[in-house]
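Subject: for your reference before the review

Hello V.,

The reviewers asked for a structural picture of the protein, and I figured it would be easier to keep everything in one thread rather than splitting it across files. Below is the amino acid sequence we used in the manuscript, unchanged from the supplementary table.
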Amino acid sequence: MKYLILGAGPAGLTLANMLKQAGEDSFLVIEKESVAGGLCRSVDVDGTPFDIGGGHFLDVRRPDVNEFLFKFMPEDEWNIFDRDSRISVCGQMIHHPMEANIWEMDLMQQVDYLKSIAVAGCNTGKEMPEHFIDWINWKLGDRIAADYMIPYNKKMFADELNELGTYWLEKLPNVSFEDTLLSCLTKKAYGKQPGHARFYYPKKYGYGELWLRMAEAIKDNIVYNSAVSKMDCANRIVQTEDGANYSADYIITTIPWNSFRELIGMPDNIRESKEQLKHSSVETRYFDKNLDTEAQWIYYPDENLPYHRILVRHNFCTGSRGYWTETRKERVDMFNEKDKKRFSYLNEYAYPLNTVSKPAAIKNLLDWSKEHNIIGLGRWGEHQHYNSDVVVALAMELAESLLNR
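And here is what came back from the structure prediction:
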């Protein structure tokens, strides 16, 4: 075929549907699971949807993306929410982001945080450090770093945080002493809103319903239960675990590069770049208790708790009950025996890790592959922590580029 798409998650499904809508039918999607959706799949648990990949929502900020997706699941099938996310920190529950909502804490804690922010390196002209932990202190002040950012990131990503780079954090705004002081005096949040400030979630289904409908639209061009094992890069031939072979003019991979058992014809130095890519694995676990909160999700930096975040299902999924936790694989054993028996799902590939060596490694890999008409796309094809709306936008752009060649 002309286009071979590896993976039927948001990236692969968007690209495939864009091709079909443009009249291109010479494409095939290969998916290792029995259903489409990738990290955005949903299953039924306790009579209502459970999103196995954790918290996935459709941001309102990309109208072109939403217009495309509403062709498959019309807008009147979605609820729209104003984001209510919170942090459980220092024995209190405050709104996210922390620096904008310190005013919700006890008075003396507000004073301590303000003093810390006032002398943060980014506010006093100190040179920006290179290591992750030093950078967090420099950017946010040592109190926010110690009470929230360092323990939370450690729980979510890696025990050794200094293996991570700081390049991906530079988009964080400086924590302004003036803005923080104003928020404490006026008792309202100042500063930039976080992502998903407003978002859509289906009225009657889990988030996975959208991707099932997109898969149905190209059902004659998807092969399920077919895990990729090898790729002959020189000849653009992909082999699956069951021994099937597929060749194409273009291969678009949305699956993790490290999931390939063998990459034939790839130079050693490029293969070594691939081996530098790291990821985290996250388990989601269901609890049937309704919580007394209006928050849709809550962050937990407390290192004595196994999970780093909970999603309060009954506050965004109509008619549901309970909540689910997100826990890095290495911390799952911290659950007690009773909780270990609850429904859970382990996502082996959850988050690409932004290690120090990643930018150069992924650039080498993608540049070489593109020269051979093998294109990485999406969270795993590009090894970037993209949300689903970003992935859809990138897939739409790639489709237009391929169709114009």
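For the response letter, the relevant points are probably these. Residues 3-38+207-278+355-403 form a domain with the FAD/NAD(P)-binding domain fold (CATH 3.50.50.60). The first strand starts at residue 3 and ends at 6.

Happy to draft the paragraph if you're swamped.

O.
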